[in-house]
């Protein structure tokens, strides 16, 4: 039956759709608290989360320095302000340390390369698989 539903969709689109459905299910599982975090995993998660936030803020700071150095006109001040406002919104929306959201957050951070697999070593296999699935979406 699935073959009939997807045979008109190019293969890559069908795979993308299945992956989307899987990621959606993972997000629902995570949001419902279906992933339990041991004390060790909580420490690993906190360390990975804080490291990623520090790296991303350092990148924002580096860009800010470049913008400040090249600022010549009064309008440049407002461009810097707009940049910082946008980055604050992005960072505030991305970094959510609720355990129900960490799988999704880590998937995104891994995809964006703010964390690496080594930052997540020690999490159980089910969590790592879910994180990688979201990261490859």
Written description of the protein model:
- The protein is mainly α and 137 residues long.
- It has one domain.
- Helix content is 73%, strand content 0%.
- The chain has six helices and no strands.
- The longest helix is centred in the middle third of the chain and has 32 residues.
- It is elongated.
Rg, alpha carbons = 19 Å
Largest sheet: none
Q: Report the end-to-end length measured between terminal Cα atoms.
A: 25 Å
Beta-strand content: under 5%
DSSP, total strands: 0
Give a short overview:
The chain is mainly α. The chain contains six helices and no strands.
Topology:
Blueprint: H1 2-6, H2 11-31, H3 39-70, H4 74-94, H5 102-111, H6 125-135
Identify the notable features of this structure and list them briefly.
137 residues; mainly alpha; 6 helices; 0% strand; elongated; disordered N terminus
């Amino acid at each position: 039956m699935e073959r009939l539903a997807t045979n008109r969709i190019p293969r890559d689109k069908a795979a993308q759709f299945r992956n989307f459905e899987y990621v959606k299910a993972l997000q629902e599982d995570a949001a419902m608290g279906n992933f339990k975090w041991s004390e060790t995993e909580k420490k690993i998660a906190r360390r990975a989360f804080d490291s990623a936030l520090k790296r991303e803020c350092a990148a924002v700071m580096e860009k800010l320095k470049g913008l400040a150095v090249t600022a010549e006109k009064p309008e440049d001040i407002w461009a810097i302000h707009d940049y910082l406002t946008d980055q604050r919104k992005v960072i505030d929306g991305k970094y959510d340390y609720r355990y129900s959201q960490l799988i999704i957050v880590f998937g995104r951070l891994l995809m964006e390369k703010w964390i690496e697999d080594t930052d997540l070593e020690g999490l159980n296999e089910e969590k790592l698989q879910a994180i990688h699935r979201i990261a490859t979406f």
